[in-house]
Amino acid sequence: MQSSERQKQRMKERRHELEAKGVCVNCGKRPALSEQKYCKSCSKHRKERARVRLLAIRQAVLDRYGNACACCGESNPGFLTIDHKNNDGWKERKPNGKNFTSSEMICRKLVHGPKRDDIQILCYNCNCAKQRLGSCPHHPSVPAPRRVRGARRKDV
Ligand SMILES: [Zn+2]
Ligand SMILES: [Zn+2]
Ligand SMILES: [Zn+2]
C-alpha cells in the first residue's frame, strides 16, 4: 500500500514538472495547448472518452428510472432527459453555491445512490413544456377550460 502511495506522489510530481514546462501531462511529449495541461491530441481523446463515459452513465440512470418519458411514454433514449421534479436541479449542480458538479458526477450519484422520488425521466418536449408552462400540456396540473363536453381527462 505504501509503495503505491509513493508512486502516486511521484506521478503527481512528474505532472507538475511537465505542466511547468508546458508539456502535455498525459503523453509527456507534445507541447500542451496554451492554458491547458494536455496537448491537442490527448485533449481530443480525453474529451471523446468523457463523452462516451457520460453517455454510458446517463443510460444507466435512464435504465434505473424507467427508460421512458413519465409524461408521454417516449422511449427513444436520444429524446430523454433526467428531470428534477421540483425544478431544483441547480441545487445539485452547485450544492454550496460555488463548486460546480459535473453531469457525470450527478449521474453517478443517481445510479449508485439510493433511488430518489424527486427524479423522473422526461423527453425533451415534455421537459421544455414543463419548464416554460409549469406543467406539460399533456397532463396540465391546472386543468385547461373544458372544450369538449363530457370529455374525460386521462389519468395523470
Ligand atoms: Zn499529449
Ligand atoms: Zn414526453
Ligand atoms: Zn408531456
| Tally of individual domains | 1
What is the average per-residue confidence, as pLDDT, rounded to a whole number? Answer: 89
Number of beta-strand segments: 2
Helix content: 40-55%
**Individual helix count:** 5
The biggest sheet amounts to: 2 strands, antiparallel
Instruction: Give the distinct bound molecules.
Output: zinc ion
Low-confidence stretches: none
What's the overall geometry? elongated
Largest sheet, order of strands side by side?
1-2
Strand content: 5-15%
Alpha-beta content class:
mainly alpha
Distance between the termini: 55 Å
Rg over alpha carbons: 23 Å
Order of helices and strands: HHEHHEH
SSE blueprint and pairings:
Layout: H1 2-21, H2 40-64, E1 80-84, H3 89-93, H4 103-112, E2 119-123, H5 124-133
Antiparallel strand pairs: 1-2
Helix pairs in contact: 2-4
One zinc ion (ZN) binds at residues 69, 71-72, 74, 122-123, 125-126.
Describe it for me?
There is one protein chain. This protein has one domain. Helix content is 45%, strand content 6%. It has helices spanning 2-21, 40-64, 89-93, 103-112, 124-133; strands at 80-84, 119-123. The structure holds zinc ion (ZN) (3 copies). One zinc ion binds next to strand 2 and helix 5.
Attribute tags:
mainly alpha, two-stranded antiparallel ribbon, 2 strands, binds zinc ion
Can you describe this structure in just a few lines?
This protein is mainly alpha-helical. The chain has helices at 2-21, 40-64, 89-93, 103-112, 124-133, and strands at residues 80-84, 119-123.
